[in-house]
Amino acid sequence: MDEIVKQALAKWPNVPDSYGWLGLDARGNWYLRDDQAQAAGDFASGNLGAKGSQLQHEKLLSFIQRNYQCDGRGCWAFQNGPQRVFVELEITPWIWRMSSDFSVQTHTGLKGIVQRCILDERGRLYVEAREGLGLLHTQDMVLAADALEAMDWPLEEMCAADLPSRYGYVRSPARLRATSDIKKPA
């Protein structure tokens, strides 16, 4: 976490969290979701306009990626100064990229070591590493096929719907919050 973020947290410890305003898609792109995008539906719904606007500013993207982390519930967030901005995930908290030497790194630039791969019912390939589970970027599927053959990585088939509970992540912190708020006694 950036030092400036730590200082802001110490100075303003009780800033409310933000839900629904930031999304990460299946290709590792970040989206800002204004009121109109949120009204169009869940980030992963596929509804027209629900993703919002793709962020393009390199310094902002770099700041988000340096301050991206998971809380104790499995919800991923970006610590924006004193405010935690929870991230709506299209599929997984990490999007893995593979290099020609079969090394992998997350969409945020963290290097990983492949422990196993998972193939879902739609033919999507996931990489499990110490940093966690992530979808392999679609542009790296040919490399992945070569890597699976050359590296003898374990490959398991699993239903995509089972991945969040098995790997401990929440795709929609906003939906979790709404459900939790309903269950609280008045």
Question: What does it look like?
Answer:
With 186 residues, the protein is α+β, with helices and mostly antiparallel strands. Helices cover 27% and strands 30% of the residues. It has six helices and 13 strands. The chain has helices at residues 3-11, 35-39, 58-66, 141-151, 163-167, 173-183, and strands at 18-24, 30-32, 53-54, 68-70, 76-80, 83-89, 94-98, 104-106, 111-112, 114-119, 125-129, 132-136, 155-157. It has a seven-stranded mixed beta sheet. A hairpin with a 4-residue loop joins strand 8 (104-106) and strand 9 (111-112). The protein is globular and about 50 Å long. The termini are far apart. The mean pLDDT is 92.
* Gap from first CA to last CA: 36 Å
Number of strands: 13
| Main beta-sheet annotation | 7 strands, mixed
- DSSP helical segment count: 6
Q: Beta-strand level of the residues, as a percent range?
A: 25-35%
Mean pLDDT: 92
Shape: globular
**Class of secondary structure makeup:** alpha+beta
Low-pLDDT residue intervals, each spanning 5 or more residues: none
Percent helix among the residues?
A: 25-40%
Radius of gyration (Å): 17 Å
Helix/strand order, N-terminal first: HEEHEHEEEEEEEEEHEHH
Order of strands in the sheet with most strands: 9-8-7-12-11-10-13
